[in-house]
Fold this protein.
Amino acid sequence: DSWVLVKFSDNWADEMDVEGCRVFSKVEWAEYRKFAKREFKENGSYVYYVGTNEEIEYSSYKDFMSQFEVKAITIDQLDVIEKLGLDCMGFFPESIGESFIEEGEE
């Protein structure tokens, strides 16, 4: 399987940097993008909550996806990342499309 390291970077109200990363298989990353597209198609926007009252609202799929940087990684690199516990860290909008996943539409 092929792997990617996906970095997320944005800023909340010019007050706080919101950054994180996660490792996905290429299949998982394709699924994430599919659910993100569906989120915008059905809801018109996506709100990412980064705190109790802090939220970043994205009005388009293109705007949302522009916050990501994707790098292909090898299995050896994946092993090192996992050994160091860095395969999922920081802020990362994992909840997008969550309602579709919960409905069993994977």
Observations:
- The CA atoms of residues 10 and 16 lie 9 Å apart.
- The mean pLDDT is 89.
